[in-house]
Structures are given as C-alpha cells and as structure tokens.
Amino acid sequence: MLGRKCTRPNQRAARHEDVLRALRVLLQDVARTAELIGVATGHQALTTIRSRRVPLLITDYNMPVMSGLELTAAVKAFAPTTYVVMISAYDSAELQRQARVIGVDTYMMKPFPLQRLELIVRQALGSVSPATGAVTGKKTF
Description:
The protein is an alpha/beta fold. It is built from 5 helices and 5 strands. The strands form 2 sheets. The protein has a 3-stranded parallel beta sheet, with helices on both faces.
C-alpha cells in the first residue's frame, strides 16, 4: 500500500510499520521538500537531531533502551523548537501529564485515525518558520 493514499477515513494505525507507511505516503503528498528519517532507537534519533535541524519528531513512548519521554527531554534540551508527537498504547493520565511537562506537543493513543496524524503533520510542517526552523503549531492532548 506504500505510495497510495488511505481512502478509508476510519482506518487506524496501531503498529510501528503502519505509522511509518502512513508517514511516507503523507509526506509524499504534504511536503515534497520534507525528508522522513526513520531510526530504530532513541539514541539514533538523538544523533540525527543533533546533526541537523528537525522541525518535527514523531516518537513512540515504548522503545528499547530509551523511552519516548527520555528522548523528548533530551531533544527539547538542545532543540526546544522541535515539535514532538508522542504515540503510545498506554492510556495513562500520569503518562500524559509527564509528556506535557517535558514538552510533548501532541500525545496520540494507539490505535489512532490516520487522518488525525495527517492533520497534525500538515499543521506542524505547514507552520515551520523558514528562518528559525521553529514549529509554531498548537499543543494537543
């Protein structure tokens, strides 16, 4: 299904592969100048973000070695304008509170409608300041 748009409005993404596939399709359509960088660990994400300006980070909460919370805290320490979307299967008010405190801009529960992810990416990438690379999107929890 890579390269084709989701035509079912209620289609949901739950697995890592579904999210990556949806992002690849979305970015082909939304931001022809955007680059999707997929990494396997939080440490790889940190290395990548330290070496280049990344306006949008989409991370899962549950990752090996480093959680999405730890990744977000590290990224916000040196790139505070990076817009962070955290995806999680955990329905926890405490986790959402922690995410808000460390700077997660949008928290999404799995499974989620692909259209919601599309809207968030469009808003985040559409509001990137060319001068600073800062994303001026609003926070959604």
